[in-house]
Automatic annotation (TrEMBL):
Name of the featured protein: Ribulose-phosphate 3-epimerase
EC number: 5.1.3.1
Pfam families: Ribul_P_3_epim
Family, per entry: Belongs to the ribulose-phosphate 3-epimerase family.
Underlying gene: rpe
Cofactor, free-text remark: Binds 1 divalent metal cation per subunit.
Function statement: Catalyzes the reversible epimerization of D-ribulose 5-phosphate to D-xylulose 5-phosphate.
Binding site for substrate: S9, H67, G143, F144, G145, G146, D176, G177, G178, G198, S199
HAMAP family: RPE
InterPro entries on file: Aldolase_TIM, Ribul_P_3_epim, Ribul_P_3_epim-like, RibuloseP-bd_barrel
Active site: D36 (proton acceptor), D176 (proton donor)
Native species: Streptococcus zhangguiae
GO molecular function, one term: metal ion binding
Length: 219
């Protein structure tokens, strides 16, 4: 299994045909599907919830990488566990109980992720780095696909990679937003190894776009 992973975001997929879209994704050889959960409160947009994840679960063997852009995510963890999520990543800005919420995610058997927005300093998640399987650094302000990559986040990616090294940890570093065949290179060079992409992948030929991203990673 490669160190580098591409995580297509179904926020950019055909919502009327999730089963078929999951099959298309599996056919490209990706291991993850990134599922953007939005509550219309923590972010201005509403997408889908745990019931949609549960409906998708029987139709796919992909890793369900759920990104909870919801307020008080601790209230939803059990629902996503029951729905069959593999990874639940929560925003440090969205809860007063980040440590407890991450403990709760892991207690269900799911992998835990912490995510911060472009304007949030890494120090906010430093106390929980020892208890996550992935750190997600938003390279756009969350809520919508199709936005431009924020190059200033590279510094934060490098800072998280340095902290991981210093603490002898081994979590993945995921980036999310505006990833294409060019920005994926700078995110990789900064230290990321999991790359969420929505609009880049789902516009035009999905397989060709996955192949182009893998080639950009020299993977
Ligand atoms: C934005 C979501 C991202 C988004 C990525 O809030 O978290 O996962 O779907 O979409 P693109 O790749 O189009 O920026
Ligand atoms: Zn996302």
């Amino acid at each position: 299994m490669s160190h580098y992973k591409i995580a297509p975001s179904i926020l950019a997929a055909d919502y009327a045909n999730f089963e078929a879209e999951l099959k298309r994704l599996e056919a490209t050889g990706v291991e993850y599907v990134h599922i953007d959960i939005m509550d219309g409160h923590f972010v201005p947009n509403i997408s889908f919830g745990a019931d949609v994840v549960a409906a998708m679960r029987p139709h796919s063997k992909l890793v369900f990488d759920c990104h909870l852009m919801v307020s008080n995510p601790e209230q939803h963890i059990e629902n996503f566990a029951r729905a069959g999520a593999d990874i639940v990543t929560i925003h440090a800005e969205a809860t007063q109980h980040l440590h407890g919420a991450l403990q709760k995610i892991r207690s269900t058997g799911m992998k835990a992720g912490a995510v911060i927005n472009p304007g949030t300093p890494v120090v906010l998640i430093e106390p929980v780095l020892h208890m996550v399987d992935q750190v997600l650094l938003m390279t756009v302000n969350p809520g919508f696909g199709g936005q431009a990559y924020l190059p200033e986040v590279a510094e934060k990616i490098a800072e998280v990679a340095r902290l991981r090294e210093k603490k002898g940890l081994s979590f993945d570093i995921e980036v999310d937003g505006g990833i294409d065949n060019k920005t994926i290179v700078s995110a990789k060079e900064a230290g990321a190894n999991v790359f969420v992409a929505g609009s880049y992948l789902f516009k035009g030929d999905l397989q060709a776009n996955v192949t182009t991203l893998k080639a950009a990673l020299h993977d």
